Amino acid sequence: MVQIPSQLLSDRAVIVTGGASGIGAATCQLLASHGAKVIVADIQDQEGRQIAADAGGLFVQHDTRDPASWARLLDAGKAAFGTIDGLVAAAGVKGNTTLRSDPDAADFNRTVSVNQLGILLGVQIIGEYMRSQAKGAIVNIASATGMPPAISKDIVYVSTKWAVRGISRVAARDLAPCGVRVNTILPGLVMTPMIAGSIDADAEQFARAKASIPMQRLAEPIEIAHAAAFLLSDMATYVTGAELVVDGGLVA
Ligand SMILES: NC(=O)c1ccc[n+]([C@@H]2O[C@H](COP(=O)([O-])OP(=O)(O)OC[C@H]3O[C@@H](n4cnc5c(N)ncnc54)[C@H](O)[C@@H]3O)[C@@H](O)[C@H]2O)c1
């Protein structure tokens, strides 16, 4: 996939949660190619350090569920780069609960704490910092499963992705008068480690899912990263509260 270096994000410091893998890792690489100073934040230490080294950025080990971890991340980013101009919140986990599963509070808590609480803490802590400096842009990664029709059976995961839409909309309206923009990307199926396990587990179901995508293929992570770069950039100065579906036509 095409990666055209530019100065689109020159000198902007951007935190990318989930930056060690998949969509987050591709976003780190792409933002760096647009001139951004990237702060790779992830629970995975070794992989995160490698991505940060490749992107010429900073790695901060981070647990998106923990308010204190967010405060440390903000401090580390400011100490390194003086300010934080952007946040791409891509940390996420797949759930394991369908309607027919045995009730599983542990799976619920794990999925909701990363995918929903993690997004909420990001807009609260980084959003409030951006409000204080009267500038900034936040991009939250939801999912096309957060749009009708209900295309996934992973009922807890889907509920968290609808929640991301709600959190982003409330934050967008609240922060808009202060010059801070908040937008959401809703990816369709993307070829990342998150779904690699599902492909191995049920190749037939996966083939059916792929065939149901009008473009007849999965997205590459960089195709989601391009959308994030746009939403962070000055090409999107009047875009806030928006939901950008990047799904090869899946929910069309
Ligand atoms: N891959 C897809 O098809 C797809 C589709 C729609 C939406 N998404 C969403 O995109 C985002 C990125 O997913 P991906 O496919 O790149 O997955 P991935 O598994 O490749 O990457 C997720 C990253 O999040 C990190 N992470 C998990 N828990 C964390 C925590 N508590 N604190 C900090 N980091 C944590 C992981 O270590 C990992 O590096 C997720 O929110 C996912 O739900 C993915």
Automatic annotation (TrEMBL):
This is Putative oxidoreductase. It comes from Caenibius tardaugens NBRC 16725. Pfam families: adh_short_C2. Keywords: Oxidoreductase. GO terms for molecular function: oxidoreductase activity. Belongs to the short-chain dehydrogenases/reductases (SDR) family. It comes from the Bacteria.
